[in-house]
Design goal:
The chain has 368 residues and is an all-alpha fold. Among the domains are: 45-77, no CATH class; 87-96 and 155-364, Orthogonal Bundle (MetI-like fold). The protein is built from 15 helices and no strands. The chain has helices at 7-31, 36-62, 82-86, 88-93, 101-115, 126-146, 162-188, 193-207, 211-221, 234-260, 263-271, 276-291, 293-306, 318-325, 335-364. Helix 10 (234-260) crosses helix 12 (276-291) and helix 13 (293-306) packs antiparallel against helix 15 (335-364). The mean pLDDT is 87.
């Protein structure tokens, strides 16, 4: 058999290319230039992309300074990513002792190592891994982060910061607020007046105040009501405030899903003699949570971004750390690189959560 392609194969190849180009032109005509308004909007969008994207790429990538150890290694033409490299440890871990950073890294490795098998469809022990992540992993991480036991030196929470603190606040808030929100949603729909009134009052109070007020109250006002000599760590107070604030919003999202479940589902379960908790846990709640996955993930994304507000109570998360190092006299003028890097990190995590929620929706979409 010769190495030359048959004439028919070449002919089919060009026919397929021609067909694809025709499909592309048809798609552009129907989606981008279908009317005068769409044509105008397309032209304006292309103009905005032309005047913004190429200069940004030129500044951030092509003319950027990547290698160096001081501001003298940076020119004023492009971005100075040397600035990020110089302050990388503070951005990632805050003032966490450099000799103890390995403890945080070990916790990250444990988390990633336990999460990866959950994304493998053929893995058989997902239930055990989930229990490990929910109950065992937090205990291990606590002793790793705090120390003062098992031969590890104490690291006070006032030294925590950067991306590490952002992840701690957001992960604790996300994991803890979901079950609390589910219970509040069930309580609000309860037929018992006391339970319903308490749930409604809790939800409306926490949804009626901004998060910055909650953080301020937990940090400044709450200690005033404690007995003399009793006090809680500032980070714990912030975690409780974020958790309860997010739970109120999760409760309303879940309540919307509960209302969307047909009443016939509950009546059928009652006809089979199922108890209230079996009905909710096995029939109603799985359907409700499946329908409100976008709303729940949207609340989680908002919570992840709202962690930046802890700066108001003296906790320096990722954004707070960037703002602090931006005031360093030796690196004045490079704050833009810090904000761009912060925006990229936040976008990466938020986009990842969004894509995973879309994956869950497709996986759980079994029709009605």
């Amino acid at each position: 058999m010769s190495g030359k392609l048959p004439y028919k194969s070449i002919e089919y190849f060009f026919m397929s290319l021609n067909g694809k180009s025709i499909d592309l032109l048809r798609w552009m005509k129907s989606n981008l230039f279908s009317s005068s308004l769409n044509t105008l909007l397309t032209i304006i969008s292309l103009w905005i992309i032309y005047v913004s994207v190429p200069p940004f790429i030129q500044w951030a990538l092509l003319d950027a300074n990547w290698v160096g150890s001081s501001r003298d290694d940076c020119s004023r033409e492009g971005a100075c990513w040397v600035y990020i490299g110089f302050w990388f440890k503070q951005i990632m871990y805050g003032r966490y002792p450099e000799t103890e950073v390995w403890r945080v890294n070990v916790s990250y490795i444990l988390l990633v190592g336990a999460l990866i098998p959950l994304f493998i469809s053929g893995f058989k022990h997902k239930g055990l891994l989930t229990l490990f992540l929910l109950f065992v992993y937090p205990i291990i991480s606590y002793f790793l982060f705090i120390g003062d036991s098992f031969g590890l030196p104490l690291v006070e929470t006032s030294l925590w910061g950067g991306l590490f603190l952002t992840l701690v606040i957001s992960l604790v808030g996300i994991v803890a607020s979901l079950p609390i929100g589910i219970m509040l949603a069930l309580g609000r729909r309860s037929s018992m007046p006391i339970v319903s009134a308490i749930s409604i009052g809790f939800i409306e109070i926490w949804r009626g105040v901004p998060l910055i007020t909650v953080l301020f109250m937990s940090s400044v006002m709450f200690p005033l009501f404690l007995p003399e000599g009793m006090n809680f760590d500032k980070l714990i107070r912030a975690l409780v405030g974020v958790m309860l604030f997010s739970a109120a919003y999760i409760a309303e999202v879940v309540r919307g899903g509960l209302q969307a479940v047909p009443k016939g589902q509950i009546e059928a379960a009652e006809a089979l003699g199922m108890s209230y908790w079996n009905t909710m846990g096995l029939i109603v709640m799985p359907q409700a949570l499946k329908m409100v996955i976008p709303g729940i993930v949207n609340s989680f994304i908002a919570l992840f971004k709202d962690t930046t507000l802890v700066l108001t109570i003296g906790l320096f998360d990722l954004l707070g750390t960037i703002q602090i190092i931006g005031t360093n006299a030796d690196w004045l003028g490079f704050h833009i690189e810090g904000y761009v890097f912060t925006a990229f990190i936040f976008w990466t995590f938020c986009f990842g959560m969004s894509r995973y929620s879309m994956h869950l929706e497709k996986k759980l979409h079994t029709g009605h």
